[in-house]
User: What shape does this take?
Amino acid sequence: MRLMSEEQTMIRDMAAGFLDEKAPVDALRKQRDSGGGYDRALMGEMADMGWFGMLLDEESGGVDMGAEAAGLVAEEMGRRLSASPFLSSGVMSAVVLRATGGADWAAKLASGEAVVAMAIDERVKHRPDAIATTAEKSGNGFVLNGAKRFVSDGAGADRVIVTAMTEDGLGLFLVDPGLEGVQSRALKTVDSRDAADLRFDNVQLDGAALLAMGDAAQEALDGALRVGRAVASAEMVGVSKEMAERTNAYLKERKQFGIALSNFQALQHRAADLYTQIQTTDAAVAAALRAIDEGSDDAELLSRVAKAKAGKTASLAVREALQMHGGIGMTDALDIGLFMKKARACAEYLGDGECHGDWLLRQRGL
Amino acid sequence: MRLMSEEQTMIRDMAAGFLDEKAPVDALRKQRDSGGGYDRALMGEMADMGWFGMLLDEESGGVDMGAEAAGLVAEEMGRRLSASPFLSSGVMSAVVLRATGGADWAAKLASGEAVVAMAIDERVKHRPDAIATTAEKSGNGFVLNGAKRFVSDGAGADRVIVTAMTEDGLGLFLVDPGLEGVQSRALKTVDSRDAADLRFDNVQLDGAALLAMGDAAQEALDGALRVGRAVASAEMVGVSKEMAERTNAYLKERKQFGIALSNFQALQHRAADLYTQIQTTDAAVAAALRAIDEGSDDAELLSRVAKAKAGKTASLAVREALQMHGGIGMTDALDIGLFMKKARACAEYLGDGECHGDWLLRQRGL
Amino acid sequence: MTDLQEFRAETRAWLEENCPKEMRQPMSEADVCWGGRNWVFQSKAQEQWLERMAARGWTVPTWPEAYGGAGLSGDEDRVLKEEMARISARPPLQSFGIWMLGPALLEFGSEEQKRHYLPQIARGEVRWCQGYSEPGAGSDLASLQTKGVDCGEYFEVSGQKIWTSYADKADWIFCLVRTEPEAAKHKGISFLLFDMTSPGVSTSPIQLISGSSPFCETFFDSVKVPKDQIVGERGTGWTIAKYLLTHEREMIGATDSALFGSDDLVEVARDALGVDDQGRLDDPILRGRIADFLIDEIAFDAELARAKSWIRAGKQLGAESATLKYTGTELNKRRQELIMAAGGLAALEWDFADAAGDEKASLWLRSKGNSIEGGTSEVMLSILSKAALELG
Amino acid sequence: MTDLQEFRAETRAWLEENCPKEMRQPMSEADVCWGGRNWVFQSKAQEQWLERMAARGWTVPTWPEAYGGAGLSGDEDRVLKEEMARISARPPLQSFGIWMLGPALLEFGSEEQKRHYLPQIARGEVRWCQGYSEPGAGSDLASLQTKGVDCGEYFEVSGQKIWTSYADKADWIFCLVRTEPEAAKHKGISFLLFDMTSPGVSTSPIQLISGSSPFCETFFDSVKVPKDQIVGERGTGWTIAKYLLTHEREMIGATDSALFGSDDLVEVARDALGVDDQGRLDDPILRGRIADFLIDEIAFDAELARAKSWIRAGKQLGAESATLKYTGTELNKRRQELIMAAGGLAALEWDFADAAGDEKASLWLRSKGNSIEGGTSEVMLSILSKAALELG
Assistant: This one.
């Protein structure tokens, strides 16, 4: 599947229009000041627009538009710091459920009726293959033990897809957080979004909770991570572009020593360097999204490069934005701090430059 | 021992005056075009000034002025790319011979009568503890087998101090490169200095060749490396300062678009950043040299930090010099290429930032 | 025994006798004694400690005795600091009066002003704040617009300041005000002192991206300032401000650097990431970035130590102070970025509404201001390119 | 079968039949066929290959047939390149005539000029060089001083050029000359063509820090250039030059980037340093720097691929060409630094007097010129800040 350029423009414009009205930066600020997370009713409206079904087929209530479409929406969300479980539920969980035949919950998340989160991480750095959580067979079902950290959108989720080791290798389980033995601790996070630490103490799962096991589970998980990385990268491109544009506008407007900051060559060159970084990142992210939609062998590599590069670029963009705005940029009244916090969380989530750089070198036998 | 600031000024001024006349950059260029290495007669004059005895006591014909004095001379050498076996023979070998009681050869190198090189490295990166060369006991003497790479000033040396493993641990041997079984291959190097690869095939050494063994050998070697690193760092500070000063002068003189380059703020800020890097490096190198002279526990740490930092700064200085000079900087007719080549060789020799950064983290238990 | 050794022995004995046990413990932000009219001592020990030290002139040891100090020499001052450090004695008093206004008055104040204001500072009776920056005047401080209209006996001051630390807690302010509207930009500014309870003064705290902050916006609405509350001549305020800015720069550059590098960073990394089977940090690439940082930081520590030795030797730092400010603040930003990276997902847990200021995320966000306050990095580089390199 | 499929089949068959075996091998610098009056073919196969391709118009496939080309569409051209790549066929001819002068003449030349000069280029009969830079005019190229005095029938050209690639081997030169001394800087330049054997032309090769080079200094001493050898109107040379500079920039930015990153770097590192017991490069910190570089390089590869697809779609790159130039050249400098670091002491072995140009040290030193030639990185950033960001 490959979007035509008019389709791309249409998706982008619709997302921009909707989010400008419903989920601009101020909405995140208000959400933060009332406790963080996201607006569930707003999520319903996003679902109505088909966003949560972009990676699902029509039988599951999806619109099957692919990763490129999801990336376009995510970039617009990044520009506005729009809060929703789009990435966790609408993208990653959707990919898992599609691959593992979980059509009923796929339909629920596509319609916005339910939120399904992904519980992947157990360490402070993203290491999806470091799984100490276990699921032991017990009758027709399983007993789940372990802990997951920083489950994105985990506090308000209706179901959580949990990675756990079984005697037949990796297992993916769809877990109801309301079950006995599940402890959820909602986290306050630097980006003011929904996140939770989860503990599982002898949680009894019935057989239907098992989504996939062994190679099938690994493949579904890898697929979700791959798409998740690329879409998260698109969100960071949105953050980067927004910061660069606001900063350039500020440079033209703000005067020091009698002339606009935009006349200072040292700032011009830094702004231009940032621009080139964003251009390169934009291209890398677009290539990753496309490779995923085309089922190309390069998709894994490109999605990791995109994630690493987008994290570096977003970090540069927010740092330059803050420094070039000067003191006023340090105040919470301006938005730069909010973008900086988002960039940090997003760079960490699903692996940073170190994580994917290490993978890259191992692939090359280094 | 601690130099007074007037003593420092005197040493620096004398070195500068002498080297301006006898060993300016043009001398290296001529040496390069006639095959590289150094001028042995000139070395004699340097020895007459006491430079090769700065780290030796008076019994060995030295003047015992310490590492700080050697650093001052080295910095002036770095400014002019003056070629001589000062670092290898006058600094590192002198330190080994002083520690191990090799007074006769110490006296010869102090007087400039002989050159004593250090054969330490066996790999392409500096790893003085990775020694495959062996010295097996045989009668009163030893049999030496192995190979050393990139022995600085090794082609023209009268003796070479070789690190080799014995059954009692590390051994330091004073080897005559004229002995049977020693193969020396003179190298053409990027910095046009004397260097050689050495092979030892069943070289018969008499007992007197052994300078030290075990802990004593390790201590002497560590001492030589420590002083060597600090003095090499001072040489790189000389390279960095010279490059920065020439570049700043060029910026004031060269016009583009009708105004001097020194008016372009982007260049001003880069020049100023380089200046701060050089200031920091200068302080770190001075601290390392002083810590050595004071016998401080921090000397090991500081000499490694100085070497790592000086390598990074010199690399930045020559790159900025070349870029800011533009096309003309790329021509061999200008000196910048010569400084760039020296900076590269000097950064590599005795360990680069990676080497010493790794040591630093291991020290911290990381 | 030399005089200095004797001084050391006496000092050690006196401190041993007079420094309360409670004042010999590591200090957090909340334990600082700022003094002032409305100061509420944290403990009896804190009050005693201030009184005893102030009585000896040791809150401001190098100031002349006539102004509340002890007239110590540079060497004696160093010995006092060493002896206090030896028993982990807390500073009895911190204030902008000691750091900023005091040095300005000593250099530029009249004899009356020195005798009036300095002892109040030394005894912690009056707490000062600094009124420099304005919303429209950041790096270009000299373009400030707060005006002081000459009304005969007094100036009538109106305008707005920003980034006034603890303005909501301070008793008095030292303030840059444009009193000569016709003069050239740098020549129209005067250095005024006035009471923060004067009619027309109001303040409003600023929330930073890192949480609550000591900074305020401060508003002046026709505040009457008697003319004897000017320091130096009219129109010479810029000279005094520049003198203090250099002073401040050295302090900011010197902040937060422990000799031989970031124990905090090394600890966070080890705790968060663990080590592999070779005992190396289990994130090989981040490990390299940390190594690179440590090299720069230890080198900077050497530079800082050198600068301190120069100051002790009575040398003016000049352009070097801009180097320290620039290098020190940029390094601290890098350190905090690395701490956040090492802390990983765990470091993202943070509550903006309830930030105490010592969380990883707070320190990281706060560090971004280091290269802005006290002169931006860009201004430092411009200063260096002109003062040290004579470019442009 | 579509037309394009048909074209592919025909092309494949023709190449199979006509491309000599010897011309299907990887090519080094020394194997390039530059053509020209004094060209000595390396082999019979090289000569045959040029003749056969030129006869078909495939040395310049997209040029019109009337001018020695084959009039291929963009799609056909791509197919031809793919089919040549499939059998590793070498380009039959490379030249500044094809890359630079040709596009300029096609855009700005008169019909007579096109018919006269282009077929000579296509057949490799005349080898061209480019006379732009002067010792006093680097980034500020428009300030060039080489003058062409109007002498009625001809211009009399005097002055000096620098960085003229292969001036000592070229037959003709296309050259920027100031013919209108009274006009504003950018409006006084004309684009002249003349024979390098004209009386008054002399050249001298330039030695680079990386060893010998194709660059020359070129001197003009009252060289007579007939007036019909001007391209475009008098005083419009700057427009033509700018057009070509953008063209050149795209080419330089695109140089040296292999899809999905530096095999050379990865190989050097593995060979020189080895791997530890976990199979990781045995220099953990350098390993991190390499990883960081590879991420940037693969991302850049994606950008380059995107730009190529835009070009194929007929889109003008505009400011993007400055991005590619800047990013590509800065990356190559980093790559070469890393190769030198990975090569360690062994990479220092190098003989300046005898450098072949493909040693690690030569490539490293040569790469430093990448961010200067074809517009410095600083000029690229200034272009971007104005054209893309509208700053200043």
Summary: Chain C touches chain A through 48 residues (CB under 8 Å). Strands of chain C lie at 128-131, 147-150, 154-165, 172-178, 189-195, 201-208, 211-226, 230-231. Residues 297 and 331 of chain C are 7 Å apart (CA to CA).
